[in-house]
């Protein structure tokens, strides 16, 4: 009898172990994001005959590319348990500077772009310096930077767009390589590099470890200040790139561009499965999240839904994503 009972217990343990492996494989936030993306696409294709047209898909990919680039930087920040509210304002600041350098100062597009990217990234450097060297919460620091960058863009332009950019420069935002828009190619390149950095380098492992337990990272001899400095610089640089692309796409530097984009970037990151408390997340998940947010924006526009209601929907999506993420972690 004892032998028979032991065999049954052993068999039961093996079954439990098998099902635990299944749970660990499929109860992942990215899986829920993929399911959500598929269901959302099906629903909108039924609701609007224009959703799955090739023209709309290309337009959707171009729209998503900018948010995905910014959200890539946001992923690094949130992985450490931080937040960056200044990204949308950095987009506007960079775009207006580059446009002004080209149109008003007669600077070459290449030099203007390099200088504009450097100055846009400087806001990320400022965020990193303050956050890493003080105990001021990131949300407060970046809220201040959001106002500073937006004010600087408005001050530089006098509140008016700077138009008159050349066709060659506009190619960055409007052109195609093959059948794919240039911004999409830029997005793919950035996401590929970011994924390698996050998954294959010591820096990437340190970023995730910092979000899990900052004190442990500090005690292990790793410079927490250096990590925080770098991640906010990365986010500033990503936002600056998005600002350059947007200026090229619009054909002008818009001081009010990027308003509310911090919400979209945070939403894409969280919906894609990055833990809002830090420590866990993937670049591919962020890309999926960016497509979900992009599809929501695109689909609701096709259905002529009020932009105010769209804000309500995006807010609900963020709360829902955090709720699902919490449930997945508890289940594990």
From TrEMBL:
Segments traversing the membrane: 31-52, 64-81, 110-130, 176-197, 231-251, 263-296, 308-328
GO molecular function: transmembrane transporter activity
Pfam families (alphabetical): BPD_transp_2
Membrane-protein topology: Multi-pass membrane protein
CDD domains in alphabetical order: TM_PBP1_transp_AraH_like
Primary location recorded for the protein, binned into one broad class: membrane
Localization (cell): Cell membrane
UniProt keyword annotation of Membrane present: yes
Keywords attached to this entry: Cell inner membrane, Cell membrane, Membrane, Transmembrane, Transmembrane helix, Transport
GO cellular component: plasma membrane
UniProt entry tagged with the keyword Transport: yes
PANTHER family assigned: ABC TRANSPORTER PERMEASE PROTEIN YPHD-RELATED, ABC TRANSPORTER PERMEASE PROTEIN YPHD-RELATED-RELATED
Name the record gives this protein: Monosaccharide ABC transporter membrane protein, CUT2 family
């Amino acid at each position: 009898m004892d032998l028979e009972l032991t065999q049954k217990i052993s068999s039961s343990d093996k079954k439990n172990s098998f099902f635990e492996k299944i749970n660990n494989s499929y109860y992942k936030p990215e899986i829920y994001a993929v399911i959500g993306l598929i269901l959302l696409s099906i629903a909108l294709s039924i609701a609007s005959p224009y959703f799955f047209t090739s023209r709309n898909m290309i337009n959707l990919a171009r729209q998503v590319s900018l948010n995905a680039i910014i959200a890539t930087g946001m992923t690094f920040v949130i992985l450490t348990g931080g937040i960056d509210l200044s990204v949308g304002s950095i987009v506007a600041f960079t775009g207006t500077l580059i446009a002004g350098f080209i149109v008003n100062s007669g600077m070459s597009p290449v030099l203007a772009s390099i200088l504009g990217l450097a100055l846009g990234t400087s806001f990320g450097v400022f965020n990193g310096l303050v956050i890493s060297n003080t105990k001021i919460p990131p949300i407060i620091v970046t809220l201040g930077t959001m106002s500073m960058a937006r004010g600087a863009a408005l001050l530089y332009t006098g509140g008016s767009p700077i138009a008159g950019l050349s066709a060659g420069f506009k190619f960055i935002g409007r052109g195609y390589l093959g059948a794919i828009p240039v911004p999409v190619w830029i997005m793919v390149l950035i996401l590929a590099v970011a994924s390698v950095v996050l998954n294959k380098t010591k820096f990437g492992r340190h970023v995730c470890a910092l979000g899990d337990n900052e004190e442990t990272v500090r005690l292990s001899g790793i410079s927490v200040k250096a990590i925080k400095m770098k991640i906010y610089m990365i986010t500033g640089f990503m936002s600056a790139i998005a600002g350059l692309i947007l200026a090229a796409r619009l054909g002008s530097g818009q001081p009010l561009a990027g308003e509310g984009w911090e919400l979209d970037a945070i939403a894409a990151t969280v919906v894609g499965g990055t833990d809002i408390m830090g420590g866990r997340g993937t670049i591919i998940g962020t890309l999926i999240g960016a497509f979900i947010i992009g599809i929501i924006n695109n689909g609701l526009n096709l259905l002529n839904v009020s932009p105010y209601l769209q804000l309500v929907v995006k807010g609900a999506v963020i709360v829902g994503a955090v709720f699902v993420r919490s449930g997945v972690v508890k289940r594990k």
